[in-house]
Design a protein that fits this description.
mainly alpha; 72% helix; Complex1_LYR_dom domain-containing protein
């Protein structure tokens, strides 16, 4: 399980823009 802090970092990371979409999809679950 990912913590909110980790998710926030992923979303804030511009280089992980592609990963952000993936994380958001998983977060929806």
């Amino acid at each position: 399980v990912t913590t909110l802090s980790q998710i926030a970092q992923f979303v804030t990371s511009p280089s992980r823009k592609s990963s952000t979409k993936r994380v958001r999809s998983s977060w929806s679950r």
